[in-house]
Amino acid sequence: MSSNENKVRLLRVVTQAEVVPWHLKNFIERSENDYELFVTGNNVSRFKKEYPYVTFIDNKILRKTSIFYDFKALIVLIFICIKVRPTIVHSIMPKSGFLTSIAGYITFCPIRIHTFTGQVWATKKGGIRKFYKSIDKLIFRLSTVCLTDSPSQSNFLYENGFHIDGKPIQNLGKGSLSGVDLKKFDINIIKDRNLLRSDLGIKNNDFVYLFLARKSIVKGIVELIESFAKITHFPNVKLLFIGPDESEGYLDELFEKHKKIESKIISLDIVENHEKYIAASDVLCLPSSSEGFGTIVIEAAALGIPCVGFDIVGLSDSIEHDYSGILVPFKDINKFSVEMTNLYQNSKKLNEMKLNARSRVLKYFSADVIYSLHDKFYKSLL
Fold it and tell me: Which fold has domain 8-179+366-381?
């Protein structure tokens, strides 16, 4: 373990603890020799044994708005900034960005970075849209520098008045927050896919579509189930439907409506080692209405699994249309089901996309590539 004397003091701020394995893990595992790293967020201290060279500081930052808890979290974050005295404070996620921009500004942190990972207001209208957009404007103004996690998001924000000297906000490389750990998403695990399939009751010759995200309206559960229902006349198709239910009862209504296809859907909650479930699948489906970049897309691509998704900000960067996957016009359920069918019926096209998807990850989105981009960016600000 190297001395902290010549390391850059970096404070990363997140909301819930799950963000650490989702979006910070790859950076953390490569940072020991370069940064004295502090991570704060809700219940993040549970990772202190896994990463003993990182200082984890709990702060109850909730995703949803709560005036009392948000104010309390702000006060705690101000004291953390005073105690840690970071050279760089860097936030991701909207709530942590809002609190960090204020705390960093008040405590005179010299370098205050926020990465925009998707806008809450993008799909809103009226006063709600203006309110959430004003919060992002505040983050933008109080931060010394901002990033996005995809080129299309930079362009979207530019079109909505977020620009620096007339230019879009910078993104690093081709996008992504932390890239793909190619040791974890090792193409060789495909060899064992039939073992997991057997455990799940999936036959070797079944064609498996995968959904791996929060089961919510914004992630496209309605469009997914409706699209899949249109192709269930094929005898050997299955839907591996994975993620926590955040539909507030809507998912039960969907399943009630489509009882006839229930036997073709394997529904699971949060899973560990999700790379194994990706490897057991044939095509990833992500009919989301809002994505910052689409990390799950490049994780699947690393295992040679192409994706069908809506042509929206973020996914238009993680999916290269007709090369590593298919982009479908937003909310077009008929077209989505057609493209699901095309990949089922056209094995030559599917196999080409599998190879293309993996080669694109190796070139642009490996964790080593993304860490190097972040490291150079941080050092350029010193």
Answer: Rossmann fold (3.40.50)
- Tokens matching residue 325: 């996957």
**What's the rounded Cα separation, in Å, for the pair 100 and 111?**
12
Residue type for 172, please? L
Helical segments of 49-115, H only: 67-84, 94-106
For the chain, where do the domains classified as CATH 3.40.50.2000 start and end? Answer: 8-179+366-381, 187-364
94 Cβ neighbours under 8 A, 6+ residues apart: 119, 120, 132, 135, 136, 139
pLDDT tens digits, one per residue of 94-109: 999 999 999 999 999 9
Q: What is the pLDDT of residue 2?
A: 56
| CATH number for domain 187-364, candidates 3.40.50.2000, 3.30.450.40, 3.40.718.10, 3.40.50.150 | 3.40.50.2000
Tokens at residue 54, please?
Answer: 């990182």
- In this predicted structure, the answer to whether residue 1 has a pLDDT above a threshold of 80 is no
User: To which H or E segment does residue 112 belong?
Assistant: strand 111-116
* Most confident listed range (18-22, 23-27, 65-69): 23-27
Q: How sure is the predictor about 22, in pLDDT bands with cuts at 50, 70 and 90?
A: confident
152/319 Cα distance (integer angstroms): 12
Q: What is the four-CA torsion angle of 271, 274, 276, 282, rounded to 10 degrees? A: 110
Report pLDDT digits (tens) over 272-310: 899 999 999 999 999 999 888 889 999 999 999 999 999
For residue 10, give Cα distances in angstroms to 13, 25, 85. Answer: 10, 15, 9
pLDDT at 3: 66
What does DSSP say about strands 163-164 and 167-168: parallel, antiparallel, or unpaired? antiparallel
d(CA 111, CA 81): 12
